[in-house]
């Protein structure tokens, strides 16, 4: 098997597991309901106006539970999840743990398809045009390794 085919096989086989871990976040659409944010009003605002809306950012800030032990000034390395996202991820992780192989054999594929459909709708593309990656490095590596580069490029 060529290196290119090995990379493709790895990406295709690992994306399901990654998407499965995130499924609950995408399928639970009331995830941010606890934030008490008027999303319809915020969505109607011009992005520049929203960026300056201090009340909005105070509401967003309430979704996070920063450490009382230190001040994090390094969000570029690793940034925390909001509490609703963390709680959702833990609920889904508990579901996977409770249902282990049954989930992986029966539910994971369905969750993955739901996630891809919802993200594709959000992005305005088809599911065939979409690839979900774990992080920026993996995404860039996927693109770079897929490019046919020649000497001097």
UniProtKB/TrEMBL annotation:
It comes from the Bacteria. This is Uncharacterized protein.
């Amino acid at each position: 098997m060529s290196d290119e085919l090995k990379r493709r096989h790895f990406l295709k086989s690992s994306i399901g597991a990654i998407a499965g871990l995130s499924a609950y976040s995408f399928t639970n659409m009331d995830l941010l309901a606890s934030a008490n944010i008027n999303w319809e009003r915020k969505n109607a605002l011009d992005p520049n106006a929203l960026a300056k809306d201090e009340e909005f950012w105070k509401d967003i800030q309430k979704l996070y539970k920063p450490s009382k032990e230190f001040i994090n000034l390094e969000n570029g390395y690793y940034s925390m999840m909001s509490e609703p996202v963390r709680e959702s991820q833990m609920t889904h992780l508990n579901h996977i743990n409770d249902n282990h192989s049954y989930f992986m054999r029966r539910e994971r594929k369905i969750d993955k398809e739901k996630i891809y459909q919802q993200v594709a709708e959000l992005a305005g593309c088809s599911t065939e045009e979409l690839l979900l990656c774990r992080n920026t490095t993996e995404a860039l590596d996927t693109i770079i390794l897929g490019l046919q580069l020649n000497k001097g490029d």
